[in-house]
Amino acid sequence: MYWDVVEVKPEPHYCLFVRFKDGVAGRVRLRPEGLTGALAPLRDQQFFEQVFIDYGAIAWPGEIDLAPDAMYAQVASQRDELQQAGPGMTR
Fold first, then answer.
1. What is the distance of C-alpha 12 from the center of its chain?
2. pLDDT in tens, 31-72
3. CB 79, CB 23: distance < 8 Å
4. Distances from the Cα of 58 to the Cαs of 11, 67, 71, 80, 90, in angstroms?
5. CA angle at residue 88 from 86 to 89, to 5 degrees?
6. What is the pTM of this model?
7. How many angstroms separate the CA atoms of 62 and 40, rounded?
């Protein structure tokens, strides 16, 4: 699918840089307060940095994964907002 992740890099403060199969790329920030239940291990920065790609989805050891379609929508909307702001505008 077009939202398959082809590149992921962990960044500080629970952020991930992601690039999708169709070239759309950007940053996704996870909220620490949302890292509960099965996602609780992601609060540990060393564990968070073990992120990898599993069949187009972002994953961590222990069968923890995130839905790529939701991340794609978030990254694509950020890109659209920046394009609407026009040249020279920053957020």
1. 12
2. 999 999 999 999 999 999 999 999 999 999 999 999 899 899
3. no
4. 14, 8, 10, 23, 28
5. 65
6. 0.82
7. 12
